[in-house]
Amino acid sequence: MTGSKPRVLFLITESWYFTGHWIGLARALKDAGCEVGVACRVSDGAEEITAAGLTLIPLDMDRRSLNPFHLAAVVLRIARAYRAFRPDVVHHVALKTALLGSLAARLTGVRRIIQAIAGMGYVFASSALRARLLRPLVLAAMRALLDRAEARTIVQNDDDRRALAEGGIVAPERLLVLPGVGVDLVRFHPMPEPPGPPRAVLVSRMIREKGMFETVQAARLLKNRGIDVRIALAGGPDPESPSAIPQETLDSWAREGDVEILGHVDDVPGLWAESHIALLPSYYREGVPHSLIEAAACTRPLIAADGPGLRDIVRDGETGLLVPARDASALADAIERLARDPALRRRLGEAGRRLAEERFGAEVINAKTLGVYRALLGENWPGG
């Protein structure tokens, strides 16, 4: 590698997810002097990836399938991508990708690996039989694959760090906590509240564990109380998630009229400009939810379930309100409290912006992540 640019390859499920969250880090790596590639399933965002000067490697990956023959085929496809790109470092995004990518790395001799695990997700959050059966298998795979001498595992909160270290999954010295990929503090900026009745919005993929049913029930409770507040769900359905909300259910909620169903929203800063409160009553085992960081950066007060990752951005009584998970009545009470108190909304929102500036700015987090690359590459880092 001496005398040539180090080659970094991101392995991620979807091109749209890469452009929505990770392209800023990829650009920072390229600006530092690295050759950067992205291996993913290609849909929206492909042009933005290539326009940034990144190598795009189409890769067929089904996020939902657990068929062992399909998974073996995916590992072989990843291995082909590694052989073709010849990465000096691979950056695996999300838990399933980290496990499959680590197998491919062993097949191809790739030693330097960064695992970015943004929350423990469905397998560790869901009470469904499928998730409970998978949990011991996934834990065994994590113990076997993630902890390598030249691998580093990045989690987004201390709860996940403790779970991996105390569970004997990753050695503490190979674990780091970085709260997500950061938010663009210029694009997501302080903004005044709009006129009209308060509007509370949940921005997320439409999956059960994000608290969708609890939010709809809270909206019904508030309507019955006569509280003048609007509740909206923003985000597209996720048919590849085992706990996806069916489109028919979303359509029925829209017809009933207790919540607005906005679907996918491209202009998220514009959405917060038209809203007053951010919601995420999730019990998904989050990392640190990007949607809440963005809302806080826009000076919107937050309401979330009291759980891992959520507590990192929602500090109860300081930047927002925490409620018990799966408790629609407590969620309704919190929404009512903020809907009735514009001064409290303003105080929480301003504190949320300060926290976003201190801990969650993209520039700060990218610089820390580049430090992980620099440590792995040593003298092969551009400029030594």
Explain this structure:
The chain is of the alpha/beta class and 384 residues long. It folds into two domains: 7-182 and 362-380, Glycogen Phosphorylase B (Rossmann fold, 3-Layer(aba) Sandwich); 199-359, Glycogen Phosphorylase B (Rossmann fold). The chain has helices at 15-21, 23-32, 46-51, 68-85, 95-108, 121-125, 129-145, 158-166, 212-225, 247-256, 268-273, 290-297, 310-313, 328-340, 342-359, 362-377; strands at 7-14, 35-41, 55-58, 89-93, 113-117, 151-155, 175-177, 199-203, 230-234, 260-263, 277-280, 302-305, 320-323. It has a seven-stranded parallel beta sheet with strand order 3-2-1-4-5-6-7, sandwiched between helices. The chain has a six-stranded parallel beta sheet with strand order 10-9-8-11-12-13, sandwiched between helices. Helix 9 links the parallel strand 8 (199-203) and strand 9. The protein is globular, with a radius of gyration of 21 Å. The two termini are 12 Å apart. The mean pLDDT is 92.
Task: Summarize this structure briefly.
The protein is of the alpha/beta class and 384 residues long. The chain is built from 16 helices and 13 strands. It has 2 domains: 195 residues, Rossmann fold (3-Layer(aba) Sandwich), CATH 3.40.50.2000; 161 residues, Rossmann fold, CATH 3.40.50.2000.
